[in-house]
């Protein structure tokens, strides 16, 4: 591609949009893929919440960081788990960060469905697998796992 991806800026309109979407997600009034993610701060332990989009394929679910290595990503990595809320339903889930090669199909699916974040990617739907693989490290992808599954895997290791 001949364009440079747009850098993420926490502008006044983005803060305003998040301030609007946060309570709507809390009430379950957003689209079916939008959830409120809450994770403790890695330094303060204070809970931080932000709206996120979940990619689903059957029972598998993934959390995408379209704007890159933001604070919620760093906090989630440090905590090893996240809380997702949509309406009255809330669940705590473990996370497993995918390596770039495994993240590519999930990123493609996310990109296909989430037009608003496309300017933050340096690829498009027609881009080669190699281009997507080069782009993947800029957009962390986490597989969401039930806490029991994670506990069982750790016991077996």
Protein architecture, described:
There is one protein chain. With 157 residues, this protein is of the alpha+beta class. The protein has a single domain, classed as Electron Transport, Fmn-binding Protein, Chain A (Pnp Oxidase, Chain A). 36% of the residues lie in helices and 27% in strands. The protein contains 5 helices and 6 strands, in the order H-E-E-E-H-E-E-H-H-E-H. Strand 1 and strand 2 (47-57) form a beta hairpin.
Q: Any chance you could write out the topology, listing elements then pairs?
A:
Blueprint: H1 12-27, E1 34-40, E2 47-57, E3 60-64, H2 71-79, E4 81-86, E5 89-97, H3 100-113, H4 129-135, E6 141-145, H5 147-156
Antiparallel strand pairs: 1-2, 1-4, 2-3, 3-6, 4-5, 5-6
Helix pairs in contact: 3-4
For the record, the count of structural domains works out to 1
- Shape summary: globular
Which value, in Å, is the CA radius of gyration?
A: 16 Å
By CATH, the topology is Pnp Oxidase, Chain A
- For CATH, the homologous superfamily is named as Electron Transport, Fmn-binding Protein, Chain A
Return the average pLDDT rounded to an integer: 84
Number of helices: 5
> Which CATH class?
Mainly Beta
Strand content: 25-35%
Q: Indicate the low-confidence ranges by residue numbers.
A: none
Oligomer: single chain
The tally of strands reads 6
Reading the helices and strands in chain order gives HEEEHEEHHEH
Architecture, according to CATH?
A: Roll
Helix content: 25-40%
Q: What structural class should be given to the helix and strand makeup?
A: alpha+beta
Strand order of the largest sheet: 1-2-3-6-5-4
């Amino acid at each position: 591609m001949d364009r440079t991806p747009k850098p993420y800026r926490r502008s006044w309109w983005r803060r305003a949009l998040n301030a609007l979407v946060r309570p709507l997600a809390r009430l379950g009034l957003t689209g079916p893929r939008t959830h409120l993610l809450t994770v403790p701060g890695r330094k303060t332990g204070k809970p931080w919440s932000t709206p996120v989009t979940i990619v689903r394929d059957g029972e598998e679910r993934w959390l995408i960081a379209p704007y890159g290595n933001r604070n919620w990503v760093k906090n989630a990595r440090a905590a090893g788990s996240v809380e997702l809320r949509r309406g009255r339903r809330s669940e705590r889930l473990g996370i497993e960060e995918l390596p770039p090669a495994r993240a590519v199909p999930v990123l493609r699916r996310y990109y296909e469905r989430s037009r608003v974040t496309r300017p933050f990617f340096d690829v498009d739907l027609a881009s080669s697998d190699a281009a997507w693989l080069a782009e993947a490290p800029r957009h962390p992808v986490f597989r969401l796992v039930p806490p029991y599954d994670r506990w069982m895997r750790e016991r077996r290791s």
